[in-house]
Every structure is written in C-alpha cells, then in structure tokens.
Design goal:
Largest sheet: 2 strands, antiparallel
Number of domains: 2
Strand order of the largest sheet: 1-2
Number of strands: 8
C-alpha cells in the first residue's frame, strides 16, 4: 500500500476496517498510516485525542495515527488514546501495583452504595482541616455558555455545557496529597492516625455529584 508519496490512506483504511472484522488477526503483522505519511506497527501508534501542545506527548516514543483514521476505527484496532497515555506518564510507576489493587469502577460503586450523600461535604471539610486550610467555600456555577478549545479528549466537550460545583480551600497540596488522590479509597494518609481523611473517602465523595472530578491548584 505504498507509493512514492507514502501510504495510500483510503486503501489502508478499507483494509484496516476489514481486519477488524476478524477477531483472530495478528496485531504484530498490522501496519497503519501515521500523521507524517509513514507506516508503523500497530503497537507503535496512538490516537490523537488530546492537544498536540501537551509537552508530554513527545515522551511517548510513539507516532500519532493519520488524521483520516476515525476514533471508531482506532477503538476497534485497540489503539491507545493519547489522553490515556499521558495520564499514565503523569502517574507514579512505582506505585501502580499498589494503587490498582481494586478496580476503580467497583470501588466507586461500592462507596456510593455503602455511604450517605448527606455526609459528603463533611469529607471535604475534613480534608481541608487535615491540610491546615483556613478557608473553605462552595460555588455552584450554572452557566452553560463556556466552551474552550483545549480539552483532554473530545468526550469531555459535552461536559462544558453542564453545571459546575466547586469546592475550594486555601491549603497547599503536597506531592503526597496528589498521590493520595490516586489511591482510590485509601488516600495518602494511612500512616497519619491524627487525620480525618486518611481513608481516601473525600476523593470518592466527589462521585456523588459528578462522573468527572478535576483538581485545580492556583498560584
């Protein structure tokens, strides 16, 4: 499928769509077109679903798929998405085994069933107190007219038309705090017996209000 100008993209896509119809195809033998008009092994590419301006994308040692290849076809080929790859790069590799001891979705569903939403704000207050915050506030923003151009994935674009609930305190998050947010249901304070939030319930309580929680730090 190569010519003097590089791969024949339309023909490549037809072949790839046919390949996905066969469950037993050999992934190691599949070649796909990339954004710079080359062909690469299937295991050496990612689907570009996040802005190229994200500097970590240069650390992947992989090439982006050709822009003509749809998200649906990329999913059928089980090509990793850039947003997921970047999240893994941001994580602490030494802690992966420990933090993945329980499936994320199962842990969240179990927490929401076993606990009472009426105490969710208490968890946020407890976390603020643990962090030695002196201020705590809640903001509900019902504006539906905010649309940015830099979202981590197209799937997040629809969320921009939803309401926002913001929990704010004036404490400073440490690296340990960020690590604790990633330890679902355990937190980063398991050895600190004098803290309220050592079981990681504050991070799980966000899911009473939203499917997507975001941590924002201000300078």
């Amino acid at each position: 499928m190569l010519n003097s100008r590089g791969p024949d993209i339309d023909t490549s896509i037809i072949v790839l769509e046919e390949i996905t119809q066969h469950a037993s195809y050999d992934r190691a033998a599949v070649l796909v077109p990339t954004a710079d008009d080359r062909i690469c092994a299937l295991e050496s590419v990612y689907y570009q679903d996040a802005p190229r301006t994200l500097s970590l994308s240069t650390s992947l040692n992989k090439s982006p798929l050709h822009r003509k290849i749809s998200m649906e076809l990329a999913e059928q080929l089980e090509v990793p998405f850039l947003s997921s790859e970047l999240l893994e790069l941001c994580g602490d590799e030494d802690d992966d085994e420990e933090q993945m001891a329980e499936d994320l979705r199962d842990r969240i569903e179990g927490f929401l069933r076993e606990n009472d939403v009426h105490y969710a704000v208490n968890e946020f207050l407890a976390n603020a107190d643990d962090a030695k915050a002196t201020k705590f506030s809640i903001l509900l923003d019902n504006r539906r007219d905010f649309f940015g151009t830099h979202v981590i994935s197209p799937a997040f674009e629809t969320l921009q038309s939803s309401s926002y609930i913001i929990f704010h305190n004036d404490a400073v998050l440490s690296n340990l705090d960020f690590s604790g947010l990633r330890k679902v249901g355990r937190g980063g304070k398991t050895d600190e017996i004098d803290t309220h939030g050592r079981h990681g319930l504050g991070a799980l309580a966000f899911y009473y209000f939203t499917d997507v929680s975001t941590t924002i730090t201000l300078p």
